[in-house]
């Protein structure tokens, strides 16, 4: 850059603060000849004079009316608020106050009213149209939110109501911030007909477009019926509160009319049903306060969007952390059960982890945690439930979690102790091949850092599916108790030596001898390591440190996705 150019740049950027009367906003004024108007100071002083003039006589009245209207909107209909409280439910604004940081909420379109003229609507046009929408912060981080207001039209969704949710979703994507929906609605507003259905479609389309771009959280705090139930199903996480939340496509009356089966709202679509049977609910709580507190905690573990890293905390020196209790928690005998949650706690910073789908498909665990201050996704077989076998629901649960972590740049740590896939006619007819392939597909396409730790047994196709080296894990670690094989020694001997055992004078003695020989040759801990399928055999007490070192080594991993529109997940 030439000297004259440098001088010109300096003059253009230079500025001075010009004194102005008290109460007037100060601004930077350039020196004459730099391209800034020399009349700027005069203009500023003129503005000051305008501010000093008496306000119009009707301004106090207009201001008072505005404040009265805002107060009326915020207070709501007192009798409807009392009914809401009598049902054990908070109002939309009370919920937002619990969810968001104090005084951080910025509301959008509080004056919005429907324009419909259907039965019961022409003279009934409350402001907000039954949904409070806007943005706030959680621990200082920006989120976008909407809370359906059951005290107005039962929280039903009409055209104006939907338009506000559309705007929140659009703003969340544009700003790269998580979106949280607090659902408490009777469903589509019947009087608005197809416009209400069109509003739902707009929500669903935006949710799909936002999938993998920003985290989406749905919180069910009341009814969520009909087409409205698809919104939580499309979200990344769904929270429900017992006794008050219910979610279904068709209610008890329709079920009885069609099938003759009588069922209560809770039996059909209550929180425990979706938390343990259907798997729709990610987390179930007893009350709204603890539920919303847990949503805040979850947000603290999530990145704002797919381009941002997950929020990190101060490193905990995990790379040098020795945990001898791990060797005590896991029995050496491959058939002895233990709780994989205890292993998760030993690996995670401060023993804290956020478990997802705790009541559904309990034979596999999925959780978010921090190791050395950085967020990771933990996947582990659960030996205390069905010996940790993989079945259809467990495969789907883990696949969904793996895909979420991969979408948002969260490294994966898979803790393997699996005897195989659950055998049986019901499993085969239920689609175990297709469901297991979902987990296989999820791991294979994941580009985030991936670490596998084999604690004990890893048999058959389940070993492959649980992020083995063959499907692309970056680092495979194994304990000295690991057994990687097509099947266990007993099963292998029964298949390989069926005729010899049938002809033996002492089948039991021969079987014991053959099992010992098979175990020594094929199930010894060195077998896979000698063939490059395991990177290291580690002391169980060093697991946390070894995983932390592996994560540090893989922190800058970059693996571009293949050039294609998208894969075809075996749904």
Automatic annotation (TrEMBL):
<dbReference type="GO" id="GO:0016740">
    <property type="term" value="F:transferase activity"/>
</dbReference>
<feature type="domain" description="CoA carboxyltransferase N-terminal">
    <location>
        <begin position="54"/>
        <end position="314"/>
    </location>
</feature>
<dbReference type="InterPro" id="IPR034733">
    <property type="entry name" value="AcCoA_carboxyl_beta"/>
</dbReference>
<feature type="region of interest" description="Disordered">
    <location>
        <begin position="1"/>
        <end position="41"/>
    </location>
</feature>
<dbReference type="GO" id="GO:0003989">
    <property type="term" value="F:acetyl-CoA carboxylase activity"/>
</dbReference>
<dbReference type="InterPro" id="IPR029045">
    <property type="entry name" value="ClpP/crotonase-like_dom_sf"/>
</dbReference>
<dbReference type="InterPro" id="IPR051047">
    <property type="entry name" value="AccD/PCCB"/>
</dbReference>
<feature type="domain" description="CoA carboxyltransferase C-terminal">
    <location>
        <begin position="318"/>
        <end position="565"/>
    </location>
</feature>
<dbReference type="Pfam" id="PF01039">
    <property type="entry name" value="Carboxyl_trans"/>
</dbReference>
<keyword id="KW-0436">Ligase</keyword>
<protein>
    <submittedName>
        <fullName>Acetyl-coenzyme A carboxyl transferase alpha chain ))</fullName>
        <ecNumber>6.4.1.2</ecNumber>
        <ecNumber>6.4.1.3</ecNumber>
    </submittedName>
</protein>
<dbReference type="InterPro" id="IPR011762">
    <property type="entry name" value="COA_CT_N"/>
</dbReference>
<dbReference type="InterPro" id="IPR011763">
    <property type="entry name" value="COA_CT_C"/>
</dbReference>
<dbReference type="GO" id="GO:0004658">
    <property type="term" value="F:propionyl-CoA carboxylase activity"/>
</dbReference>
<dbReference type="GO" id="GO:0009317">
    <property type="term" value="C:acetyl-CoA carboxylase complex"/>
</dbReference>
<keyword id="KW-0808">Transferase</keyword>
